[in-house]
What we know:
Largest sheet of chain A: 10 strands, mixed
Largest interface: A-B, 29 and 31 residues
Mean pLDDT of chain B: 89
Oligomer: heterodimer
Number of helices of chain B: 4
Distance between the termini of chain B: 25 Å
Order of helices and strands of chain B: EEHHHH
Helix content of chain A: 25-40%
Strand order of the largest sheet of chain B: 1-2
Number of helices of chain A: 10
Helix content of chain B: 40-55%
Amino acid sequence: MWTEIKPQQQAKWPDGxxxxxxxxxxxxxxxxxxxxxxxxxxxxxxxxRQYGGRRGAWRLLEIMTKHDVRGxxxxxxxxxxxxxxxxxxxxxxxxxxxxxxYEHEMMCNYPAKEELRLIRKTVSVFEDLLGEHLRGWRTxxxxxxxxxxxxxxxxxxxxxxxxxxxxxxxIEGHGRRLLEIPFSSYSDAAIAVLITKPFPPxxxxxxxxxxxxxxxxxxxxxxxxxxxxGATKPVLMPLTVHDFIVGRPSRCKILDDFIAxxxxxxxxxxxxxxxxxxxxxxxxAREPTTPSAVLETS
Amino acid sequence: MLNDDxxxxxDCAGDQLIEIPFTTSTADKTFIGYPYPMKGGPDGLxxxxxxxxxxxxxxxxxxxxxxxxxxxxxxxGRPAPLRTLQQxxxxxxxxxDVRFARCSEIAAWCDDAAKN
Lengths: 298, 116
């Protein structure tokens, strides 16, 4: 069991930071490819998604490098095993990492014991192939057990699996604390394409797909609203891009244009969950400031 | 295949095959096929094609790129999308370093590249 801890003071970002934007690169490639009832993987969907590992992830890294911005790479364990070079390049470029389960299993469909096993397996892949001890986690569709498992069995500093708030919050349980950094459905999986059942949505396309201008309009509307609100209140813009969705050229151009647009605004900072999390812990200044400190004093 | 931007050479059972992948992300039927409504209205296709071209053209400064466009007779063949295609082709023809090629020509280039 766990409870939410309220900040001890008016929560805010550091001086000069009006709107932090966290780009989460979901590097999962073909892990969630559609499987027919007879157990065969749909080759069409598999190919669409495999594009993410072969090309899309590299294009996303290139665009972020071009703009000199860093984000968090949310990577499945199996994807890291198949395409280690891209994660190593992202690490060398200074990006942060989080685990995204092993084969993109939807954890809401798994018992707690299996969820624990899959998280452990993913964590060990990061340590073995990337030399990375994960500080963060984003599950694929959290279960009712996810937070308890993260608190009880791991030393993650933050989780970013929840959709239920605009701003981070601290949760406490099993003798330690964890920062939840929620995200939103304003991600490419919702605005660029809609992956639905029945699948495919029609005989004429793999997914229901929106135009680049639609994606641009949605991102800009969200940014403009948050930037205006950020003049007086703390705000955060989570921006989730999947390697196989926004990694395509026509959509990547929108990410390219959006970063350029956002960077023109004073106080906009592209950051990582690691960095934004460290900022937010300071709002709990009368409390221990890091999860490890909590462990030492509890 | 749908899994890449560029051609690749398969070695299969003593013979070779050049794979030239395509994409549904710019295909006309993705945006104007049934079920309606068409995505992005009448200008949607041009928006998709323009963005794809601009991204690949920029990348073409530093590496080999090609843009593949899948169009259906029953979709782009209709008057409004056909006009969109005409406008798009006219725009591309203004570039002296853009070439319209057949798949066989792309395959020949790849074959040469593999040999050299």
